Automatic annotation (TrEMBL):
Keywords: Cell membrane, Membrane, Transmembrane, Transmembrane helix. Residues 1-10 have a biased composition (Basic and acidic residues). It is a single-pass membrane protein. PROSITE patterns: OMPA_2. This is OmpA family protein. It comes from the Bacteria. It holds the Pfam family OmpA. InterPro entries: Bact_OuterMem_StrucFunc, MotB-like_N_dom, OmpA-like, OmpA-like_sf. PANTHER family: LIPOPROTEIN YIAD-RELATED, STATOR ELEMENT OF FLAGELLAR MOTOR COMPLEX.
Length: 223
C-alpha cells in the first residue's frame, strides 16, 4: 500500500507537459493568418491571371480609358481629335463630312454633280462645289478628289470603262475648283471605278451609294 506522498509523486501533474494544449491555439492563429493572406493575394491578382502593369496598379477601379465618339462609332482611332472648326459647322445638303484615319472626307452623291454616264458638272453640281470653296480655301493641306462608280459596266466612245468615267468626274471637280482660285498644286484627281464600294452593288440603293465623289483632305505633316 502506497502512502499518500508516494501516490502524489507517481500521479501525473494536471499541468504537466503531456496535457498542455496551449500550442494548439497558436497553431490555429497561424493557420487563420495564412488563410487571410491567401484571400488577400487572390483579391489583388489582376483579371486574367497576368501581372498588372504599373499604370493598371495606379488606376482607380472605376477609371475607364478615354475614347472619342468617332472611335466608338467606327472602331478606328482617328488621326485628329475632332473636326476642325470650319468643317464641324459645315452643312451642305448632299455633302457628308466624316473624320477618318487619313484625314477629313467630304462625300458627295454623284447624282448632285453629274447626269447619268456623263462627266460634265451640272448647274446644280457647280453650286454644290461652289458652296465648299470657302472652307477648302481655309484648309492648308492636300486635297485628293476621288471618283467612284458602281459595278455596272459602261462602254462608250468617251468612256470605254468605269475607270475613265470615275477619273473624268474627279478631274471635272478639280478643274472647277481651280477656276475658283484654289491652288491646283495641292490637289490631285483619282479614279477608282468600282473598286472601293461602300455598299453592295446587288441592290439599287447600294449602287446609288457607291456612285460618289469624295474630297479627302489630308493634314500637312505636323498639322
Amino acid at each position: 500500500m502506497l502512502d499518500r506522498d508516494t501516490r502524489r509523486t507517481l500521479e501525473p501533474s494536471p499541468s504537466g507537459d503531456g496535457d498542455d494544449e496551449s500550442w494548439l491555439t497558436s497553431y490555429l492563429d497561424v493557420l487563420t493568418l495564412l488563410i487571410t493572406l491567401f484571400v488577400l493575394l487572390l483579391a489583388l491578382t489582376p483579371p486574367g491571371g497576368g501581372e498588372a502593369s504599373d499604370s493598371d496598379q495606379m488606376r482607380p477601379p472605376s477609371a475607364v480609358p478615354s475614347m472619342s465618339l468617332a472611335t466608338m462609332a467606327t472602331g478606328i482611332q482617328p488621326r485628329h481629335d475632332g473636326l476642325q472648326p470650319q468643317f464641324s459647322g459645315l452643312t451642305v445638303p448632299g455633302v457628308n463630312v466624316e473624320q477618318g484615319r487619313e484625314g477629313i472626307t467630304l462625300r458627295i452623291d454623284d447624282s448632285l454633280l453629274f447626269s447619268s454616264g456623263a462627266a460634265q458638272l451640272t448647274a446644280q453640281g457647280r453650286g454644290v462645289i461652289d458652296s465648299l470653296v470657302d472652307v477648302l480655301e481655309s484648309f492648308d493641306g492636300q486635297i485628293s478628289i476621288e471618283g467612284h462608280t458602281d459595278s455596272i459596266p459602261i462602254s462608250t466612245v468617251r468612256f470605254p470603262s468605269n475607270w475613265e468615267l470615275s477619273a473624268a468626274r474627279a478631274i471635272a471637280v478639280l478643274r472647277h475648283l481651280d477656276s475658283k482660285g484654289l491652288d491646283v498644286s495641292r490637289m490631285r484627281a483619282v479614279g477608282y471605278a468600282d473598286t472601293q464600294p461602300m455598299e453592295s452593288n446587288e441592290m439599287p440603293e447600294g449602287r446609288a451609294a457607291n456612285r460618289r465623289v469624295e474630297l479627302l483632305l489630308r493634314q500637312p505633316v505636323g498639322g
